[in-house]
């Protein structure tokens, strides 16, 4: 069954919920009404009908190497308290974004590569447990403008990647809200940061063992042919 949603209608519902966070996680210099759609996943539980309990949200620049139904099985692996399934970011983008916090906290794992570090998240493949999102008091508190402001000040955070930035920042503070997907479910291919100051550490973020299930051709990177 395919249901088509009107982008303008969704944006109208989203804007009041995400307006406050847009100035922290948008590329523009202000809060653009149209930018709200880049925060759809953050508040999906507020605007989708109650009978919809789980959603997989994906970017368009993906290539599937396995049946997407297999990804739904990951919902069964969510630990208690987790509301979103998401893979780690595979470039040192958040090593860069959190530079000031990292300088002030030299022992932090924030921005460090896996397996022990916190490299942040990539929102190209998202599992949204809408029912868990609706019931999580903690998650809904984190959507409040005062909480967003508090965290952005703590981490000196200014991003431009929409929902991905929000999930990354929240994940630094409350990792228990997230079920981390294996990198093979979102094998990102972009290497932009390797050529922009991080060649010495890039491979620590970029490596991904195992058979790829979904390729993600982010930053217009060509996806391997079969």
List keywords for this structure.
single chain, alpha/beta, 226 residues, four-stranded mixed β-sheet
Number of strands: 7
* Derived structural class: alpha/beta
Number of helices: 10
* Portion in strands: 5-15%
Shape: globular
Protein name: XXLT1 xylosyltransferase
GO molecular function: xylosyl alpha-1,3-xylosyltransferase activity
Pfam family, one: Glyco_transf_8
Keywords: Transferase
Written overview of the protein:
This protein has 226 residues and is an alpha/beta fold. The chain has a domain at 52-147 and 163-216. The radius of gyration is 17 Å and the shape is globular. Helix content is 34%, strand content 14%. The chain has a four-stranded mixed beta sheet with strand order 1-4-3-5. A three-stranded mixed beta sheet has the order 2-7-6, with no helix packed on it. It is built from ten helices and seven strands. The longest helix is centred in the N-terminal third of the chain and has 19 residues, at 7-25. Helix 1 (7-25) packs parallel to helix 8 (145-154). It holds the Pfam family Glyco_transf_8. One of its GO terms (cellular component) is endoplasmic reticulum membrane. Keywords: Transferase.
Question: Mind sketching the topology for me?
Answer:
Elements: H1 7-25, H2 44-47, E1 54-58, E2 62-64, H3 69-72, E3 84-88, H4 93-97, H5 99-104, E4 121-129, H6 130-135, H7 137-142, H8 145-154, H9 163-173, E5 178-181, E6 187-188, H10 202-206, E7 214-216
Parallel strand pairs: 3-5, 6-7
Antiparallel strand pairs: 1-4, 2-7, 3-4
GO molecular function, one term: xylosyl alpha-1,3-xylosyltransferase activity
InterPro entries: Glyco_trans_8 (IPR002495), Nucleotide-diphossugar_trans (IPR029044), XXLT1 (IPR042465)
GO cellular component, one term: endoplasmic reticulum membrane
